[in-house]
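FORM 7B: Structural annotation worksheet

SECTION A. Query
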Amino acid sequence: MKYWQKIMKRILFFICTMVLLSSCGASGRAARTAEEAAERAAIVQAIEQADFILDVNHIIPQGFPAKSTTGEYELRLKGDVVTTRLPFIGVSREATYAGVDEISIVFEDEKVDLRRDFSKVSSKGEYTYIFKGGKGRTPWTVTLDIFESGSATIRCTNSDGRVMTYYANLVIPEKK
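SECTION B. Predicted structure
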């Protein structure tokens, strides 16, 4: 009888241990899910209020190899004011006398006419902003496609046929 009691105690101990471990794993998963939902809600709020920073991590020039970056470039949108200095990589079809900034995408606290297109939110979780402006001879048309996950694409085109694409991650600015 003692032999069977030992086996039953071991089985009972094993079952209790498994129940305890599975409940801990479930609560950990629930905590991670709640944390991810809170982070996603903060990202959506920043997007909808147009108050965020896009930290560029890849530059994709048309007809040239892609380049990874390490926090060197960003685009700041606060309301309808844009601040950025993104490099243009490519062939200029005209002589530049004022330096590289003449063909780069430069907005210095520039107020823009910001158009929003949130029609893809329900199906893809994609938010789109479009605006024009920037320093230089010809204005840039900038399209921001931002996803609820925090990833983003910045597409810049101008009438001279220049096209630049940047991949970025959304950063929520710290409140002062």
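SECTION C. Observations
The CA atoms of residues 25 and 31 lie 10 Å apart. The first strand starts at residue 51 and ends at 61.

SECTION D. Sign-off
Analyst initials: ____
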